[in-house]
Amino acid sequence: MSATAAAPPTGALPGVRDTPRGAGTIGQTRAGFGLLTPFLVLYLAFLIGPALYGLLMSFFDGSSVRSGLGPFAGFGNYTEALTSSDFWSSMWHTVLFTLLTTPPLVLVALALAMLTDRIRRGRWFFRLVFFAPYVMPVTCVGLVFTWMYVPQTGLFATWLDALGLPAPAWLADPNWAMIAVALMTVWWTIGFNFVLYLAGLQDIPRELYEAAAVDGAGPGAQWRRITVPLLSRTTALVTMLQTIASLKVFDQIYLLTVGGPNYSTRPVIEYIYDVGFTDFRTGYGAAASMLYFVVILAVSAVWFAISRRRA
Amino acid sequence: MATLTVPEAPIRTAPAKAPVDPRHRAFTVLCVVVLVVFAALWLVPMVWAVDTSIRPESEITTAPATWWTSHPTLDAYRQVLSAGRMPVWYLNSFLVALLTAVFAVVVCSMAGFAVARVRFRGRRIVTGLVLAGLLIPPQTLIMPQFQEFAGLHLLNTYWALILPSVPTSVAVFVFASFFAGLPGELAESARIDGAGWFRVYSRIFLPLCRPAASAVFIFTFVWSWNNFLWPLLTMTSTEVMTIPVGLNVVQDSYGIRYAQVMASAVLGALPLFAVFLVVQRRIVEGIANTGIK
Low complexity bias: where (chain A) (predicted)? Predict the structure, then answer.
């Protein structure tokens, strides 16, 4: 598996390492930067530039209703965010969402991929069914699930009713709203991890299983001794990508609950959105963005260190 | 289709050489059953949405949970397509996704070629700079980016959606690792023949990079089509909205007319569904090879 996200990209580029000192002639330097110019212009203007400007903004009390950075605030915005219970609860909701979605999105995807890998015919059908939701726009998925979660008349309420179970008020109940969002997310995005696992399974040489079967290993032993160990790289990759994707949650929650009921599901990105675009406090919003960025960076660094040690 | 595979699968998966162990066969049947149950669960929301969209509105409110309708109708679709702004949103989404994907392929393949093939001074610094972009979640940039586009008076234009999505580090690395894997003689012999570096890129390497280009194109297209947060912020006029943002206002305007809401959802999902059916293999290979998420 040549996964760009998992392997350090510099190491994955054989061309980059072997630069002899002084190899860059003037012509090559001109050609290199000439080819890079369109990318670098857009990249610096719309990604690196805003990132640095955001860092600068976070030290000022800026407001979107007047121009300029606003009065200097020092670390004021950071202390305010770090002592704000609203900020911390939104941080917790993001973490809670990640904890609720990552395990099923890794384990169920693995289980479904192994089952699909076992069968000979109709594999395309299962790949289609499990992956199709992933290409749907989140708004469409949100509309469908909102309709299924409607109390009393929605599909889930009717099902639970038929089973004689009390149906929760899914999206209106603070205890259930996040679970409802997580369920929808599992349905919507599992196909991506499923496909990564299918690819990982196909990389395992069949001869290993045949040799193990000759030696008398049953399906259980084959699974424990061959499948699981040889999938560990895929599992590390899937878990890392999933954790980081879940930490970036906004769309589903905004569409299903708008962060409610009573802010009980509001994730960090919506908190930033609220303070920046509803309260017009851009400096404070930028500081909250920076704190959130540090969290993502720390999680990525931990995952990177772990996958590196394993590889 | 799903039910057809149930009786056949156990016979097919039984190892040809060894005598069939009955426990093994029972286990295989169990696996198939579990798989079919999950597939059915995954189909329910899609089937339910289509089912709701073809029922008369009166039937949805009186008997919401029945699956069969004796009066299937396409009224909801007709209303959504004629009264709503759906056709405009389709066009917006299509143009934005197409332009973003084309620009991304051109711009990022040039950059990937330079990083992988041209030995210029400062290459390590540039590579590190591009690498830094992998770590920056675009969601943390919404406020400075919004101020930038407001300052440039580009809010409510296609450019606001296209420009930030073109320079993606992942795409550069996808192209760079692909180009790095091609034989070096290709570039060297062309250089000896006197071709300029841009010519080497455009005439030799670009035509060879179809697998990488199609992966980047498809992923950028799908990602751009489905992007929600940034278009939600920058597209406030219904004239320029893309499908995901436009559909967000549909629910409010249609209230509880579920047939129309579901018809909109089905229509919104349909184009990418069709694209997916056509290029399924490329999408799956792209994920397997790059892990773009």
Answer: 1-15
